Amino acid sequence: MGIECEDSLYIFNKSNTLRKLCYRIVHHSNFETAILVFIMTSSFKLVIDSYVAEGTALSDVMSNFDYFFNVIFMIEAALKIIAFGFFMDDNSYLTDSWSKLDFFIVFSSLIDMAFDQVNIPAIKILRLLRTLRPLRFISHNINMKIVVIALLESVGAILNVLIVVFFVWVMFAILGMSLIGQRMGYCSVESGDYYGINQQSCLE
User: Does 7-153 carry CATH code 1.20.120.350?
Assistant: First the structure.
């Protein structure tokens, strides 16, 4: 099966029929495509939420869509956990950094869905984590992963470049002050009529 975990969740061994089925599903060519479609659809739904007033019939429909997407993503996580194991063995679900992000978003969505009717400010904050759903697109797209990883690995080099640019700016700032500092003409109006020539002194 190409996995290290012998007993997923201490229940499903490698010869377990359900685990083999889950493994075949998550490795199916259309599985990742379907998940990407759901991620993009849920992201588009978040955009529409910004224009829907609470308490309306459309708001209730959008809430049902939230439940639907949460269930889909929980099923995805459950399939991968059963297929690969949870976190203790190599190549388990949570040993991958992108899977950790996915699981965090799914888990926070589960808590949000469980306490949807509870009027607690701390719980309502979890609803803001819905905005992280579009990030799951990165974890399911190989090209996006490569771009993000390359950016993260180049942060140190980018900081070095910024430091060099900063010192170049400082150098030209000092040069500019030395060459033209206090050498440019300006006018000062002391008092009285703004347009009076006698009260206005121009310094060269």
Answer: yes
